[in-house]
Amino acid sequence: MTDRKHKPSAVERPLSKGKAEININSFALLFSEMIQYCQNRVGSVPELQNKLSELGQHVGVRILELLFIRERNLKREIKLLQILLFIKSNVWKTLFGKEADKLEHANDDERTYYIIEKESLVNRFISVPKDKGSLNCASFTAGIVEAILSGSNFPCKVTAHWHKGTTFMIKFEDSVIARDKILEQR
Question: Is the per-residue pLDDT at 21 higher than 70?
Fold first, then answer.
């Protein structure tokens, strides 16, 4: 008998380690098909962006569980800034192979934060028709972020906007800010 070492399957390996296992061309094809599928079921750009966000939320719930089970040993963040940094770094690396470009806090609203991505992968291969000029397919990514934050007990609304590339505006509920202030006092 030979002693063989157990080689972990793709499901058992940590998400942050190893090479990306998806071909960018395959991703572009699948994502464009998903957009076409959604576009055939809605009547306006806002409806299409909402549909993409809903699909992203389904992905975000699953990503949340994978990251916290496999990468963090079930340890969840309880402070607002820590969960945002986790998304900017770990989540972005898992999904896109690199960190998001920037995390900013709004000057005029304590409930609003921005994650800025100069060149969003989900918009890279999309050509938007003139009649849908305001379409930002990063609404899909916004849905992922919203599901991760809400699933981590940081209820919010996340939207994608064209500004400095793609900006994800995260608007937290008042309860999140109040809880974070209490945690800071401890």
Answer: no
Task: Find out whether 101 and 116 touch, Cβ atoms under 8 Å.
Answer: yes
Of the listed ranges 17-31, 58-72, 129-143, the one predicted with least confidence: 17-31
Q: pTM score, two decimals?
A: 0.85
CB-based contact 95:114 (threshold 8 Å): no
Distance CA 142, CA 5 (A): 41
Contact 67, 15 (CB under 8 A): yes
**CB of 114 within 8 A of CB of 103?**
yes
Burial class (CB in 10 A: 0-12, 13-18, 19+), 102: middle
Q: Residue 27: beta bridge partners?
A: none
CB atoms within 10 A of CB 137: 24
In the predicted structure, residue 178 carries a pLDDT above the cut 80: yes
- Neighbouring residues of 151: CB distance < 8 A, sequence distance ≥ 6: 60, 61, 64
pLDDT beyond 80 at 130: no
| C-alpha 7, offset from chain centre | 30
Domains in the chain: ranges and CATH: 24-185 (3.30.1380.20)
Q: Single out the residue of 110, 111, 106, 84 nearest to residue 173, CA to CA.
A: 111
